[in-house]
Amino acid sequence: MVRRNYSSIMASKSESKEPVNEQMVANTYAAMRSELNQIYSKITELEMEVSEHSLVINAIQPLDQSRRCYRMIGGVLVERTIKEVLPAVQRNKEGLEEVITRLNEALEKKKKEIADFEAKYKIRIKKSDSEVKDESSKKEGSAQGVLVGPASSSG
Questions:
Q1: Residues 43, 107: contact at Cβ < 8 Å?
Q2: Does residue 130 lie within any of the structural domains?
Q3: Which has the closest alpha carbon to 43: 91, 111, 126?
Q4: DSSP character for 67?
Q5: d(CA 55, CA 59)
Q6: Number of separate helices (H) and strands (E) present in the chain
């Protein structure tokens, strides 16, 4: 859908297509990168939940199955037995792992889509410029005062 809109704009503005062209490519690329970062964030969040589920499973598995335990369901703390809770926690963990698998597949598709987009529009990320700026700002910071250097290196 974006490509159709993009090509119709290019056809209608033949004289000033370069600035609009570059801006649209940059905006589309930024949106794609943002979506990639959102997928990374969601995967990280879900992996932490899986880790928490594993901790709970490992903590309650060796205990007596008739022992009481408490589980938060929709903001309400309910009393159950380990026998009732353990299978539910395991199912939740498996469900989270399936979602993570799907998100990883979506992540790979998005990476490929971004790589194709970069190749199509010859996009290059200039890391050397940002590194040069970082180095120059560090030099300025250390020249301004002694406290700037130690505070940034210890934090």
A1: yes
A2: no
A3: 111
A4: S
A5: 6
A6: 5, 2
As for how many domains the chain has, the answer is 1
Higher pLDDT, residue 72 or 128: 72
Name, in order, each residue with C-beta under 8 angstroms of 63's C-beta and a sequence gap of 6 or more.
82
pLDDT bin (cut points 50, 70, 90) of residue 143 is: very low
Residue 28's domain spans which residues? 2-10+19-121
The whole-angstrom separation of Cα 63 and Cα 82 is 8
CA–CA separation, 53 vs 113, rounded Å? Answer: 33
Whether 127 has a pLDDT exceeding 90, the answer reads no
- For residues 102 and 110, give the distance between their C-alpha atoms in angstroms, rounded to a whole number: 12
User: Token digits for 97?
Assistant: 């792992």
Handedness of CA 56, 59, 65, 69 (dihedral sign): negative
